[in-house]
Amino acid sequence: MKANSATYIGVSTNSVTKWQIRHAREGFQRSIGTVDDETSAAILADIFVLQCKGIKARTNFDYRKSDLIKILSIEPLWK
Question: Under a CB-based contact definition with an 8 Å cutoff, are residues 21 and 51 in contact?
Fold first, then answer.
């Protein structure tokens, strides 16, 4: 595995201890933020992509309908 690669979609490491949430939108790579662990970054990446693309988005984890409704009703991560 490359030094900056991750197991999850939309996640990379920007140092030894931080995991970065990244997303390509409108032709640009955007950094959404950083967190301390890879799984949290993957969940945030999922929330972001679900808010941008809706329930057909490709995610890292499977979500129940009730979870999707909550995710889609919270304040968007992208402004």
Answer: no
- Per-residue model confidence (pLDDT) at position 38: 92
| Kind plus residue range of the DSSP H or E element containing 52 | helix 38-53
Of the candidates 6, 4, 9, 5, the residue with the CA atom closest to the CA atom of residue 47: 9
CA dihedral 32, 71, 75, 23 (to 10 degrees): 20
Task: Choose among 75, 67, 27: nearest CA to 48.
Answer: 75
Q: Could you give the CA distance from residue 25 to residue 27 in angstroms, rounded to a whole number? A: 5
73 SS3 class: helix
Dmax over CA atoms of the chain, in Å, equals 36
pLDDT above 60 for 39? yes
Stretch 15-23: mean pLDDT, rounded? 83
